[in-house]
């Protein structure tokens, strides 16, 4: 068993049932995540999804880490990021049978996305039926203009280097 918490600092913390901190994660993508507002996993806890105040969805692969959290080779990898809403994501869940992520926002919209690619299927209340079989159509909601991004690098905490800039005028330089 594992507990996950999402924080205003964009940090995700994974805890043991005993209350010990096992891992801290920060989004690696180029998109600003902002405070995290929603969190869910699939039934088998292989995928961790987070939603942000900025409307982004981040998809993490946690399967190998949960198999053996002590093995340093088994890292959690951020696999996918996409802008789902122009405003804050308030809830999300993944439906494994159809491979669909459902997101809800404070703007009142509920949208469907392909779980593996972040492709947009549509929104609840639309006139046309959802076509969940066609993931080749690259369409976006009217208020979002960023396509999904597959994350190829590994998430590493960046350490800030301390640089000293003395306020001394050097005429020779």
TrEMBL record:
Keyword Transferase assigned: no
InterPro entries: Beta-prop_IP5PC_F, WD-EF-hand_domain, WD40/YVTN_repeat-like_dom_sf, WD40_repeat_dom_sf, WD40_rpt
WD repeats: 82-113
The keyword Repeat belongs to this UniProt entry's keyword annotation: yes
Keywords in alphabetical order: Repeat, WD repeat
Domain of life: Eukaryota
Pfam families reported in the protein's UniProt record: Beta-prop_IP5PC_F
Residues annotated as domain IP5PC-F beta-propeller: 27-114
Name recorded for this polypeptide: WDR64 protein
Organism: Leptocoma aspasia
Protein encoded by which gene: Wdr64_1
């Amino acid at each position: 068993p594992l507990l996950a918490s999402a924080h205003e600092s964009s940090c995700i913390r994974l805890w043991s049932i005993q209350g010990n901190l096992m891992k801290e994660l920060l989004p690696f993508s180029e998109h600003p995540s902002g405070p995290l507002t929603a969190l869910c996993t699939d039934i088998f806890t292989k995928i961790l999804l987070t939603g942000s105040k900025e409307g982004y969805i981040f998809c993490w692969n946690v399967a190998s880490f949960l198999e053996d959290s002590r093995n340093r080779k088994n890292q959690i990898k951020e696999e996918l990021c996409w802008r789902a809403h122009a405003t804050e994501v308030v809830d999300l869940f993944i439906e494994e049978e159809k491979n669909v992520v459902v997101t809800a926002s404070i703007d009142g919209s509920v949208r469907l996305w392909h779980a593996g690619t972040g492709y947009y299927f549509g929104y609840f209340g639309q006139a046309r039926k959802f076509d969940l079989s066609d993931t080749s159509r690259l369409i976006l909601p009217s208020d979002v203009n960023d396509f999904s991004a597959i994350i190829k690098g590994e998430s590493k905490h960046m350490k800030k280097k301390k640089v000293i800039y003395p306020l001394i005028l050097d005429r020779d330089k």
